[in-house]
Amino acid sequence: MHNRRNFLIGTSVAAAALGLAACGGEGAGSGGPDPDAAPSDQTVGVAMPTETYERWVADGANIKKGLEDKGYKVDMQYAQDDIPTQQQQIDQMINSGVAALLIASIDGASLSAQLDNAASQGIPVVAYDRLLTDSENVDFYVTFDNYKVGVSQANALMFGLGLLDEEFEPADDAPEGPLNVELFAGSLDDNNAHLFWKGAIDTLQPYLDDGTLVVPSKQTDIEQAATQRWEQETAQKRMETLLTTYYNSGEELSGVLAPADPLSRGIINALQNTGRGPTIEEGLPIVTGQDAEIASIKLIADGVQHSTIFKDTRELAERAIVACESMLKGEDPEANDTETYDNGVKVVPSYLLPVQMVLESNYEEILVESGYYTEEQVESGQL
């Protein structure tokens, strides 16, 4: 499908079989939960990365409510993007006797000791949205199709630039270029950031190769484009530096590939502070995004941010709960991908959910009519 370092793709049939075997009801270790235990006698440990991102707050609330509605107790902890804190929180969950762990990691490779400990106690582990890497003790993975997120972000950028039409086919009246763009990536310690980047660059590469798109900074490697911890302020500072260094003589910037909404807002701040915009119609470059955060949906509705990618965290939470419940009952969770997610040690059986591109023309249909947001929330930009 697609390649990225030693984490992804190109797995053998034997490796896939190993991944499937590991998702059985015995957890990653030799013990395992008691399939006859009542939900009210079992606690699920939920480790979340941070409360500073709107989406993780929503994820946590959806997971906690869903598990409690099924009768389970929930020990949910937020680590505020501090790796040692998350390690300690998971250790405490294991020591307290949780029946299962659901982990959205800060750094997917930082929890090997905790996963080993869970395995020794027979505690099954579900990786939530971010793949847990470099460990055999990961039973299941629930996420979105993150490669397609990157593809959609790149298509949104090219649609906004006029290179693609509404069917996302080459536009008949496409500008000849060259069009100047800059590229941003997420945090390198988040496995998803590499998938977003891979999907986007694979899609943009033909246009970069033929000169239709040009990156004046020449910062086209993920290491150059990365934004540690997905921080808005870091993205804004990098955009300010790019503008000062490469666009200080009147060079036009047509678009920016941004992989997440907080980064998008930081980039937009930098652009507007240098006299671009304030809206797309008035000259603001095309800026993409992800996660459909309410502040960015208002910007899209106002013609400021061009697009975002909607990942319905209600569905992700539900799928994670189903997977946990299956393992607690001694059953195999349903997987729809048993080949893609090689975490460096094994292929982790996974369930992938679809994503949707959100534009000014469709945000009401996708987000308001579905009940994800109200019109009043979009208008105010606040929940």
UniProtKB/TrEMBL annotation:
InterPro entries: Bact_Solute-Bind_Prot2, ChvE-like, Peripla_BP_I, SBP_2_dom, TAT_signal. Residues 44-331 form the Periplasmic binding protein domain. Pfam families: Peripla_BP_4. It is found in: Cell envelope. Its main location: other. Keywords: Signal, Sugar transport, Transport. This is Multiple sugar transport system substrate-binding protein. It comes from Brachybacterium fresconis.
